[in-house]
Recover the amino acids of this structure.
């Protein structure tokens, strides 16, 4: 495949796919009861330290978790063109992308892209069949680099192992 100059050419669609707009997992009742107990305890503690606002923030986060798990994600069309990644709303141009990598989450494959400006980070659900082709096409324009594992990543993993919510 020839290397296409995105600055001086018309847009050419290189790859199209359809996938869900976000990853999703159905949580069990035990998960929700654990989250509610932890949110209640954190809310009580933070209420006496800071007042009502942190309690409302915790409540909003618990509601968002519940609402997103109960709402089915829609199927969306994505395309990789000679200019960048096209989603339903907009085109993210290659010159605004720093790096990308792939990872697995909840039984699906994700492509993560760090951007120069807002929204700073994209998470795209991909089909595992098209991952190799997508990697080859993206490597022509953007560098592939997985983020380093930091102490906070190790701490979150350790806490997840020690305090399972399911």
């Amino acid at each position: 495949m020839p290397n296409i100059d995105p600055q001086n050419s018309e847009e050419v669609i290189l790859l199209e796919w359809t996938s869900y707009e976000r990853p999703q997992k159905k949580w069990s009742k035990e998960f929700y009861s654990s989250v509610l107990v932890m949110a209640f305890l954190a809310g009580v503690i933070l209420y006496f330290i800071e007042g009502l606002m942190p309690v409302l923030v915790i409540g909003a986060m618990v509601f968002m978790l519940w609402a997103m798990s109960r709402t089915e994600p829609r199927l969306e069309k994505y395309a990789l063109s000679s200019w960048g990644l096209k989603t339903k709303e907009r085109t993210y141009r290659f010159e605004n992308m720093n790096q990308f990598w792939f990872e697995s989450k909840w039984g699906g494959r994700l492509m993560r892209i760090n951007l120069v400006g807002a929204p700073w980070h994209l998470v795209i659900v991909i089909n595992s069949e098209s991952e190799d082709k997508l990697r080859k096409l993206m490597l022509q324009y953007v560098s592939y680099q997985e983020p380093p594992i930091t102490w906070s990543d190790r701490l979150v993993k350790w806490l997840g192992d020690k305090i399972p919510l399911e």
Strands lie at 13-20, 75-81, 84-86, 91-93, 97-105, 108-115, 121-126, 143-144.
